C-alpha cells in the first residue's frame, strides 16, 4: 500500500512526477512498457496495480516504490487511458481533487493536461471519429462560475450553508452602503401583498439601524411575555411590521440579531438571523415517478424508500413551519404540496386521486397531475427510465395547478430524483423560485462506466436523457441536499456520486469539461431520520404493537407458501438475519442470499429473512425486478436453502414493519443492508431506531451513519466471503457473550439520537431555503446568465433526446372528470379540429367591421408566416444559423468610422466592393487594411448625381433616431403596452401564439430569443409577427417583399445594399427600442441605429453568400452583376455551380466586404444595455463564423451548405458573455479623451 503522503491542492502532480520517475527510472520503464504493450485500452485502478505488481519482481523494491510518491500517485489514479506511446492518468489525490497528466512511455516525460484533453483521449477508445471532431459538443458549466467562491478543503465539502454565510458576511461588510442589498431584501418581504418586518418608511440602512436601537430599548422595558399585538401599532409608527416575534422576548432577540448583522456581520449571526426571517410559508416537493401514496404502494415498481422519506420530510417541515410562524407572531397557514403523477390504473392505490391529505398533518397534501400526450391522459404506470417525453408538459400543467391551489407562487421548491429535479428546475426557472434538489441515487454511479457505454445501454435505461437532466438540475438548483458526505465526494478510495459528474464524457453525444464541482457551496448535508412514533426501540414494551404479533408470527414461521411468502424456518430458536429493500441489482438482496448460501458456518448460526419485491416474475413489469426474482429462485434451489430462508413479498404497512424490526430484535438477530451502493439508507436508520444491530454497505451513506465496530458494522458488498464471515463472527461472539449484542444495540440507538432525527433535518433545510433565497437575490445577474445557457442546453439537447424515448401509443383520447372525492374518471373525447389562429387576431376578428382595432390590424393576416420569414432576411439568417443568439433580431454596430452629425453627415462608406478599380463618386475611405473602398454614387441621364441607396437608408435612420431622442434617452428601453378590452389572458395568449409562430417558422431564431429577458422575448416575438404599422421600416420591409416578387438580379452593390436594408436592416431598426441603450453610453442614438444597420447588412450579405446554390435553383442571383463581370463570371457559371479560381477570387472579395460590415458593427454592440449585449455578441460571433465555413468548404456554396455546428455555438457563449462585460466603447473613448485633454 502507498504511504499516506501529504498533498495539498497547490501541489502539481505534473511538476512533481518527473523527478519521482527519474529516481525509479528502471522500474518505471518496465511498468510503462507493460502498460502500453497491449495497445489501446482503458484501465481502472485495480488493473494499474496488478500490472505494476507483475512488473516488479523484487518485493523490497515493490514495497519501496509503493511507499514513495509514485506509489501514491498510481494508487490515487482512478483510471487511465493507454494510447501508445502515451498513458493518460486521471489522478484523485483527495476527495474532490483531480489532476490529469500524460506520460510518454519511452522517455517518461510528463505533461499536465486539461479535463477536456483527458476526456478526448478516453473517447478515442470508444468513438475515435467523434473524439477527433473539433465540432463535438463540449459543455463547460464551470465557465459561468468564475466569480463564484469555492470551498478550499475536501473536509469542508457539504458545509455550503456555513460557507455562504461567511461569504455573505464578507460581502455585506460593516459599512451602511454595503448593507443596502439586505435592506432591499427585507423591504420586499411580504405575504400575499402584506408587508412583513419593515415597510417603505425605512428606506436607508441608517434609518433601519436607528429604528432597531429604538425598538430594542422599548421592548427591553416590557415584560418578556407581552404579546406583539400590544405594541404592534407603535412598531408600525417606526416603520416596523409584524414578523419579528410573538412576544417581547422573541422580538428583542430578533432585533438584536439583525443589529449585530448590520454592525459586525459574522456567519453565526447571519445564519441565526435568516432562520428567524419570515420568508418561507409554502413549499412544493416533487416526486414524479412510481406510485406515490400512503398505503399499498411500497414494493410496487419504482416505489420504495423515497416515498417514506418524502412523507416523513413533509411532516417534519410542517411541524417546523408551524413552530416558526408562531414564534414570528404571524397568523399565516403554511401549505405543503407533494407533486406527483396521477395514474388512472392505480392498482388499488389512491394514485388515481387528484388531491389527498397527508396523514398526521393539517396543511399538507399530495397533488397528482397526469401525464399527457397531445390531448390524451396516460393511464398506466411508466418506468422511471421511460418517463422523459412526458416531463415538459407535466411541468407546465403542474405549475398552473400549484399557482391555482396556493393562490400564488410557492416560496421554496424541492425536487427528488432525476425526473422530479428536472421538473422542479423547469418550474423554478419559470416562476423565479428558490430551488433545492435531492438526488437520492444518481444512476451514473449505479452502473459502472455507464457514461462511456451509454449507447449500449440507452435503449434500456435512456441514460442520455437521464444524465443530461441531472446536469441541468444540478446546475439550475440554488442548493443541493445530500444525506452524507460520501454522496457528494465519496471516500479516499471511492468517488462520490456527485463527484463523478465533475468531468465525464458520453462519446458521440456530449463531453462535460466541467459538469458540477463538489467544492461549489451549493452542496449541503442534511441527514434524515426515521419516524420515531413508528420506529422505536424493542425495549419499550408498553409501546409495542402487540396486535400485530400473530400476523408477524405467521409471516415469519408459517410453513405454507403463498403469494406473500415462500420458504420456511425449520429452527425457530436461531437468531434472524433480516433485510428489507427493493428487489433490484443495486440493492443486492440476491447477493446477500448467495453469501448466506455459500457460508455453512453462518447458516448454522442464524436464519435468513428477506422482504423484497414480488415473488412471481410474471406479476412484475419492472425489467430489473423480473431478472432478480428469477435469480432469487435459482439461488434458493442451487444452495438448497429450504428450512433456512424466508422470502417475504414487499410490505407496505409501516406500523407493522416497525414491529417486525422489533420482533427480529427479540430473536437477538441483526439487520443487513447489502447494497452495492446506497446514497443514504433509510432502512439502516429504521433498524437502528428499533435497537437492531446493523451491518451496512461501506459503499455510500451507511458508512457515515455507522461507526464501524461501535454502533454497527461496515461490510464490503463486493467481497461476499469476507462479509459473511464478519456476520458469522458477530453471532459467534454474541453466543459466547450475550452482553455484546446489547452493547452494539445501545450504541446504535445513541448514534441515532445524536445525529439522525427529522427535527434536525427540517431545521437545517428550512435555514438553507432562507439563506440561499437571499443569495439568489444578491447574485441574480450571475444566475440569469447561467440560466439562459441552461435553457439553451435544455432546448437544444434534452428535448431532442427525450423525443427518442418511446412513448405509450395504445391510448385513446381521454378527458378527465374529477368527482367530489377527488377521484378522476376517464371518458372518451374527440377534440374538435381547429385552425390555429393567433388569439389576439381572433379577438380583433370579433370586432364589428369598421372598428378601429380591426381596421388597423387585419392587414397582418395577409403576411403568410413562411413568406414573412423569407422576407425578413435577418430572421431567415438567424433561423438557419443562430442557435445561441439571445436578442437574435437586434442589429448593432457603427455604420461609419467617425461620428455622424445629424446636420452634416460625413459619408465615407458607401459601396464596400474592396477591389473596385473605378470610382464615380470620389469619396475615398482609407481602410487600415491597406485597400481602398469607393462610393457607388452614379450620375443620372441629365448629369445630376443620384441619391445613393445608402443615403436613402441613412435618412430613415436619422428619422428613427430623432423619434427616439424625443422621449426615450438616456436609457432606451421601451415597455410595450397594448390595451385590449378582453381579459389579460388574451394578451398572454397573443404573445404565446406569436412565440408559437416564431418557433414553427424560425426555429433557430426562436431558440435565440430564449436567451432574452421575458419582456424582451415577448417584444421580439411580437415584432417578428406584427411590425408597428406606423413605422417607416415596416413600410420598407413591405417594399422588400415586393422586390422579391419582381426582381431576381441586382446590377451593382448599391441595389443590393438597398435590398439588404429592406429585408434585414428594417428588423434592426424596429428592434433597437426593445434592446435598449446602456444609460452610461456616450454614443449618439444615430450611431446605435447605424450599428443595428451594419450588423443587419452583414448578416444578410452572409445569408446571401451561404445560399448562392439554393437561390440559383430558384432562378435568383443576389450578387452584384457588375462585380461578377469583373471576375469574368456570368449567370451561367452560377447556375452550373462552377467552383474555379475565378469564383474563389470573387467569393473572397464578397466575404471580405461582409467582414468589414461585421467589424464596423462590433463597437456598437458595446453601447447596448447590459441585458442585451451578451445575446447580440453571441449572434454576431456565431453568424460571422458562417463565412469561415464557406472558406472551409473551398468556396463551394453551390452543393455544400455552410453552417456553424451546435457544439461551436454552445462553446461560443462564454466568449460572448465575456465580451458583454466590456463597458460601452464610447465611455472608454470619452475617458481617454478627457485624460488626453
UniProtKB/TrEMBL annotation:
Stored CDD domains: Trans_IPPS_HH
Cellular component, GO annotation: plastoglobule
The keyword Transcription belongs to this UniProt entry's keyword annotation: no
Recorded catalytic activity of this chain's protein: an NDP-alpha-D-glucose + D-fructose = a ribonucleoside 5'-diphosphate + sucrose + H(+)
Residue ranges of domain Sucrose synthase first GT-B in the record: 269-557
Origin superkingdom: Eukaryota
EC number(s) stated in the UniProt entry for this protein: 2.4.1.13
Residues covered by the Sucrose synthase EPBD domain: 159-246
Keywords: Glycosyltransferase, Transferase
Residue stretches spanning the membrane: none
InterPro entries, sorted: Glyco_trans_1 (IPR001296), Isoprenoid_synthase_dom_sf (IPR008949), Squ/phyt_synthse (IPR002060), Squalene/phytoene_synthase_CS (IPR019845), Sucrose_synth_GT-B1 (IPR000368), Sucrose_synthase_pln/cyn (IPR012820), SUS_EPBD (IPR056736), SUS_N (IPR056735)
GO MF term list: squalene synthase [NAD(P)H] activity; sucrose synthase activity
Pfam families according to UniProt: Glycos_transf_1 (PF00534), GT-B_Sucrose_synth (PF00862), SQS_PSY (PF00494), SUS_EPBD (PF24862), SUS_N (PF24861)
All copies of domain Sucrose synthase N-terminal, residue ranges: 9-123
Glycosyl transferase family domain span: 568-732
BP terms from Gene Ontology: sucrose metabolic process
Function: Sucrose-cleaving enzyme that provides UDP-glucose and fructose for various metabolic pathways.
Family: Belongs to the glycosyltransferase 1 family. Plant sucrose synthase subfamily. Belongs to the phytoene/squalene synthase family.
Descriptive protein name: Sucrose synthase
Lineage, highest ranks first: Eukaryota, Viridiplantae, Streptophyta, Embryophyta, Tracheophyta
Amino acid at each position: 500500500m502507498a504511504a499516506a503522503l501529504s498533498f495539498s491542492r497547490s501541489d502539481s502532480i505534473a511538476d512533481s512526477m518527473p523527478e519521482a520517475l527519474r529516481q525509479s527510472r528502471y522500474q518505471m520503464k518496465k511498468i510503462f512498457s507493460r502498460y502500453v504493450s497491449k495497445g489501446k485500452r482503458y484501465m481502472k485502478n485495480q488493473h494499474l496495480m496488478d500490472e505494476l505488481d507483475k512488473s516488479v519482481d523484487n518485493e523490497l523494491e515493490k514495497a519501496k516504490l509503493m511507499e514513495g510518491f509514485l506509489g501514491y500517485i498510481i494508487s490515487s489514479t482512478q483510471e487511465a487511458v493507454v494510447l501508445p506511446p502515451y498513458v493518460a492518468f486521471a489522478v484523485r489525490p483527495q476527495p474532490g481533487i483531480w489532476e490529469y497528466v500524460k506520460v510518454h512511455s519511452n522517455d517518461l516525460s510528463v505533461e499536465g493536461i486539461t479535463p477536456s484533453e483527458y476526456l478526448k483521449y478516453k473517447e478515442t477508445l470508444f468513438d475515435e471519429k467523434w473524439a477527433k471532431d473539433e465540432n463535438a459538443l463540449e459543455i463547460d458549466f464551470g465557465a459561468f462560475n468564475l466569480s463564484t467562491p469555492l470551498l478550499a478543503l475536501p473536509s469542508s465539502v457539504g458545509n455550503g450553508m456555513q460557507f455562504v454565510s461567511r461569504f455573505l458576511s464578507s460581502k455585506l461588510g460593516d459599512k451602511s452602503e454595503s448593507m443596502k442589498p439586505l435592506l432591499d431584501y427585507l423591504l420586499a418581504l411580504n405575504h400575499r401583498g402584506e408587508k412583513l418586518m419593515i415597510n417603505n418608511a425605512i428606506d436607508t440602512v441608517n434609518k433601519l439601524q436607528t429604528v432597531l436601537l429604538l425598538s430594542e430599548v422599548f421592548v427591553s422595558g416590557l415584560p418578556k411575555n407581552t404579546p406583539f399585538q400590544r405594541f404592534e401599532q407603535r412598531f408600525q409608527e417606526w416603520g416596523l411590521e409584524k414578523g419579528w416575534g410573538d412576544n417581547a422576548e422573541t422580538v428583542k432577540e430578533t432585533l438584536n440579531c439583525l443589529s449585530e448583522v448590520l454592525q459586525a456581520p459574522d456567519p453565526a449571526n447571519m445564519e441565526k438571523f435568516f432562520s428567524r426571517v419570515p420568508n418561507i410559508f409554502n413549499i412544493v416537493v416533487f416526486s414524479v415517478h412510481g406510485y406515490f401514496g400512503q398505503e399499498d404502494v411500497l414494493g410496487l415498481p419504482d416505489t420504495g424508500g423515497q416515498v417514506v422519506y418524502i412523507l416523513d420530510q413533509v411532516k417534519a417541515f410542517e411541524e417546523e413551519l408551524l413552530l416558526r410562524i408562531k414564534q414570528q407572531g404571524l397568523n399565516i397557514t403554511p401549505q405543503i404540496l407533494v407533486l406527483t403523477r396521477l395514474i388512472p390504473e392505480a392498482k388499488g392505490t389512491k394514485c388515481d386521486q387528484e388531491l389527498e391529505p397527508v396523514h398526521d398533518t393539517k396543511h399538507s397534501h399530495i397533488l397528482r397531475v397526469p401525464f399527457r400526450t397531445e390531448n390524451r391522459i396516460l393511464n398506466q404506470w411508466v418506468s422511471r427510465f421511460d418517463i422523459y417525453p412526458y416531463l415538459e408538459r407535466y411541468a407546465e400543467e403542474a405549475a398552473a395547478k400549484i399557482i391555482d391551489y396556493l393562490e400564488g407562487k410557492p416560496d421554496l421548491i424541492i425536487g427528488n430524483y432525476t425526473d422530479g429535479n428536472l421538473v422542479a428546475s423547469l418550474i423554478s426557472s419559470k416562476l423565479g423560485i428558490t430551488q433545492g434538489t435531492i438526488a437520492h441515487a444518481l444512476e451514473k454511479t449505479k452502473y459502472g462506466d455507464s457514461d462511456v457505454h451509454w449507447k449500449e445501454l440507452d435503449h434500456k435505461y435512456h441514460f442520455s436523457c437521464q444524465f443530461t437532466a441531472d446536469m441541468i438540475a444540478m446546475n439550475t438548483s440554488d442548493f443541493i441536499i445530500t444525506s452524507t458526505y460520501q454522496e457528494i465526494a465519496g471516500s479516499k478510495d471511492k468517488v462520490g456520486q456527485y463527484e463523478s459528474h465533475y468531468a465525464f464524457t458520453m462519446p458521440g453525444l456530449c463531453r462535460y469539461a466541467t459538469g458540477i464541482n463538489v467544492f461549489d457551496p451549493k452542496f449541503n448535508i442534511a441527514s434524515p431520520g426515521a419516524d420515531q412514533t413508528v420506529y422505536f426501540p424493542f425495549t419499550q414494551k408498553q409501546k409495542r404493537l402487540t396486535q400485530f404479533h400473530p400476523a408477524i408470527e405467521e409471516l415469519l414461521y408459517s410453513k405454507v407458501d403463498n403469494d406473500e411468502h415462500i420458504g420456511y424456518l425449520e429452527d425457530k430458536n436461531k437468531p434472524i438475519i433480516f433485510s428489507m429493500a427493493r428487489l433490484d441489482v443495486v440493492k443486492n438482496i440476491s447477493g446477500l442470499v448467495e453469501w448466506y448460501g455459500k457460508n455453512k458456518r453462518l447458516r448454522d448460526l442464524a436464519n435468513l429473512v428477506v422482504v423484497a419485491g414480488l415473488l412471481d416474475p410474471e406479476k412484475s413489469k419492472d425489467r430489473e425486478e423480473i431478472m432478480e426474482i428469477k435469480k432469487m429462485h435459482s439461488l434458493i434451489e442451487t444452495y438448497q436453502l429450504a428450512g433456512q430462508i424466508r422470502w417475504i413479498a414487499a410490505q407496505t404497512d409501516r406500523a407493522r414493519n416497525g414491529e417486525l424490526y422489533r420482533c427480529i430484535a427479540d430473536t437477538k438477530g441483526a439487520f443487513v443492508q447489502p447494497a452495492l451502493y446506497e446514497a443514504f439508507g433509510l432502512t439502516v436508520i429504521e433498524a437502528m431506531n428499533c435497537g437492531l444491530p446493523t451491518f451496512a454497505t461501506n459503499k455510500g451513506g451507511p458508512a457515515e451513519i455507522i461507526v464501524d465496530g461501535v454502533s454497527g458494522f461496515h461490510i464490503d458488498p463486493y467481497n461476499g466471503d469476507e462479509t459473511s464471515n464478519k456476520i458469522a463472527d458477530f453471532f459467534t461472539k454474541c453466543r459466547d457473550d450475550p452482553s455484546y449484542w446489547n452493547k452494539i444495540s445501545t450504541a446504535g440507538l445513541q448514534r441515532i439520537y445524536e445525529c439522525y432525527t427529522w427535527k434536525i433535518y427540517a431545521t437545517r433545510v428550512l435555514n438553507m431555503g432562507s439563506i440561499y433565497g437571499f443569495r439568489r437575490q444578491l447574485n441574480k445577474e450571475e444566475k440569469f446568465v447561467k440560466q439562459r445557457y441552461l435553457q439553451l442546453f435544455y432546448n437544444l439537447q434534452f428535448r431532442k433526446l427525450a423525443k427518442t424515448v418511446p412513448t405509450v401509443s395504445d391510448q385513446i383520447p381521454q378527458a378527465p372528470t374529477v368527482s367530489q372525492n377527488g377521484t378522476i374518471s376517464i371518458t372518451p373525447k374527440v377534440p374538435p379540429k381547429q385552425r390555429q389562429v393567433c388569439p389576439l387576431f381572433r379577438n380583433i376578428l370579433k370586432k364589428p367591421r369598421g372598428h378601429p382595432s380591426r381596421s388597423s390590424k387585419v392587414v397582418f393576416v395577409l403576411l403568410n408566416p413562411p413568406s414573412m420569414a423569407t422576407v425578413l432576411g435577418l430572421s431567415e439568417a438567424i433561423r438557419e444559423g443562430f442557435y445561441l443568439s439571445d436578442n437574435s433580431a437586434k442589429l448593432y454596430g457603427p455604420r461609419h468610422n467617425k461620428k455622424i452629425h445629424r446636420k452634416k453627415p460625413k459619408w465615407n462608406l458607401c459601396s464596400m466592393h474592396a477591389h473596385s478599380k473605378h470610382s464615380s463618386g470620389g469619396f475615398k475611405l482609407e481602410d487600415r487594411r491597406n485597400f481602398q473602398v469607393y462610393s457607388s454614387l452614379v450620375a443620372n441621364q441629365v448629369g445630376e448625381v443620384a441619391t445613393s441607396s445608402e443615403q436613402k437608408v441613412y435618412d430613415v435612420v436619422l428619422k428613427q433616431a430623432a423619434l427616439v431622442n424625443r422621449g426615450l434617452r438616456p436609457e432606451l428601453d421601451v415597455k410595450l403596452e397594448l390595451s385590449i378590452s378582453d381579459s389579460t389572458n388574451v394578451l398572454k395568449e397573443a404573445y404565446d401564439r406569436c412565440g408559437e409562430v416564431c418557433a414553427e417558422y424560425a426555429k433557430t431564431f426562436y431558440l435565440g430569443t430564449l436567451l432574452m429577458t421575458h419582456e424582451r422575448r415577448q417584444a421580439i416575438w411580437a415584432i417578428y409577427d406584427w411590425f408597428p404599422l406606423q413605422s417607416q421600416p415596416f413600410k420598407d420591409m413591405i417594399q422588400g417583399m415586393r422586390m422579391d416578387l419582381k426582381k431576381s438580379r441586382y446590377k451593382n452593390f448599391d441595389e443590393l445594399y438597398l435590398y439588404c436594408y429592406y429585408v434585414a436592416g428594417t428588423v434592426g431598426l424596429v428592434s433597437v427600442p426593445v434592446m435598449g441603450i446602456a444609460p452610461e453610453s456616450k454614443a449618439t442614438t444615430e450611431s446605435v441605429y447605424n450599428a443595428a444597420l451594419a450588423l443587419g447588412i452583414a448578416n444578410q450579405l452572409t445569408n446571401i453568400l451561404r445560399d448562392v446554390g439554393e437561390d440559383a435553383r430558384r432562378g435568383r442571383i443576389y450578387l452584384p452583376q457588375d462585380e461578377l463581370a469583373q471576375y469574368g463570371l456570368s449567370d451561367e457559371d452560377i447556375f452550373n455551380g462552377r467552383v474555379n479560381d475565378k469564383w474563389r477570387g470573387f467569393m473572397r472579395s464578397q466575404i471580405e466586404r461582409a467582414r468589414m460590415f461585421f467589424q464596423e458593427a462590433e463597437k456598437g454592440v458595446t453601447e447596448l444595455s447590459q441585458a442585451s449585449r451578451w445575446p447580440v455578441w453571441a449572434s454576431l460571433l456565431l453568424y460571422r463564423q458562417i463565412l469561415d465555413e464557406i472558406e472551409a468548404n473551398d468556396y463551394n456554396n453551390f452543393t455544400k451548405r455552410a453552417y456553424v455546428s451546435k457544439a461551436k455555438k454552445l462553446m461560443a457563449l462564454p466568449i460572448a458573455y465575456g465580451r458583454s462585460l466590456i463597458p460601452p466603447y464610447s465611455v472608454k473613448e470619452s475617458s481617454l479623451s478627457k485624460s488626453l485633454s
